[in-house]
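Progress report, Aim 2. The chain analyzed during this reporting quarter is listed below.
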Amino acid sequence: RKYLSVIYAPNDHVAYCVKCFQDQDGKYHPGQRNYDRTAGRLMDELDHAKRIEDVFYDYDHNCGAWISFNPMDGGGCKIDNITDFKYALVESDTQNIDMQYSLMTKLELPIAALVHSGNKSIHAIVRIEASNEKEYSRRVDYLFKVCKQNGLDVDTSTKNPSRLSRMPGFERGNNRQYLIATNIGKESWNDWVKYIESINDDLPDPEGPIKAVILFFSNCISMPLMDSFLP
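Predicted structure tokens for the chain:
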């Protein structure tokens, strides 16, 4: 419920997925999405529910559940259905969670919500605050470039603004998808860009060509995450 209240306005339609299927290698993938309810209605239903399944229906506990972090119009779950290009997903599957958390916080990413995926990554829902898809694409390119230049091996396949992310509150195998923190780092995209540019004037221009400049943060010490944030 807290995740919904932070990410969406009450009238925003929320696209989510509790259906999954397995490929030939046994890996789970999201199936059909639901997008018929607003964040306000979902939060109201959660207030009166005894179990999360009472609101989001039955789900496969082996694969967990997903959610689209950008609001939809209630008519679908594609890019054309997005009503506001507010957020991007930053995640890494190649680095341990302590390192991911340390780098995300050292970079002061403007994170609205930080979610443990229930597996080997954390999902940072980062404020992009773009006015349209084109600006969204430019800003995400800049965001990912800064992350990579500073040691965060971000998964670049997550650039799609209708991308699904892990939804907190659901079991995934023997683990749980849960909300680690909300509203950390810089308060807005513009504040974050000013911060990054203040560190080094040679950083890539967020609205123009990207220059290859590497920043080195001192004292980038991994912080214990699993013990600290396990519910």
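The first helix runs from residue 2 to 7. The two ends are 16 Å apart (CA to CA). These observations will guide the mutagenesis work planned for the next reporting period.
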